[in-house]
What we know:
- This protein is mainly β.
- About 15% of the residues lie in helices and about 40% in strands.
- It has helices at about 70-75, 135-140, 160-170, 180, 275-284; strands at about 5, 10-15, 25-30, 30-40, 45-50, 55-60, 60-65, 75-80, 85-90, 90-95, 100-105, 110, 115-120, 125, 155, 155-160, 185-190, 200-205, 210-215, 220-225, 230-235, 240, 245-255.
- The strands form seven sheets. Strands 18-19-20-21-22-23 form a six-stranded antiparallel beta barrel.
- The chain is globular.
- It starts with a strand and ends with a helix.
Amino acid sequence: MPYSICTVANAPIRNSSTHTSEMLSQLLFGEVVEILTTKGRLWVKVRTCDDNFVGWVDASQVHSIEEDLLETYLHDFAFVLDFFQPIHAGNSFIPLTIGSRLPRFDGMQFSVNGQKLTFSGRAVFPKDIQADSEMLVKLAKKYINTPYLWGGRSAMGIDGDGFVQIVTRMLNIRMPREADAQINLGENVAFVEQAEPGDIAFFENKRGRIVHSGFVLEDQKIIHAYGKVRLDRLDHYGIFNENDQRYTHRLRIIKRILAPSEKKIIHEPPISKRELNQMQLNLK
């Protein structure tokens, strides 16, 4: 099957081949898809190469990839780290958001299907990223106040599952698009008090279906997309919105996808024989 690359800031992935159809997700600039079928010249049904998400995309928002360059586009790229930063395409600009990809980037320039492009912002190659909780929290906090958008995955609008997916993807962790599939990754954390920054909390609706996810922060806080990307209080019951003075999401489970942080080991001096005898006396 042929493959294509997203060549706009973000391209809606829709439920059917019409612009009035529900937006299920988004492609960001530089992301690669497999073309499953076409509908005339206007629409293509695609499967995303990162997470196998399927939907319809406007054919003008993706560009076919030369077969011999497919592996290069899939693996040789840098992530954009600036919240907003344009790329120069001749005399015009293409606005990019954090998490977009720069294929075959040399630190200043790259090309997509023969078109030379220039990027002067901050970018990082996946091999150079330190996948730890500090970096995850730093990336997540860049999105604070980003408006909620159903199906969104960009700094111009994002939903809860997309927020978790795009932040972890920049740490080379491939997460499914939806929370009810994301929950299958990682190790269980037994109690909220044992959670560490970077752990992912999952929340259920009244029917027990997983419908929301977010990142645990220090001091039992959570960062998640609800109305906007925001910080709220997290406890054993769920997310408590202090502005509304109510719980908005019911906690199901917390999962750890990163290696646990190293705990400082305190070596106590050995107990003397005299101290041991005194302890034994006190227990009598």
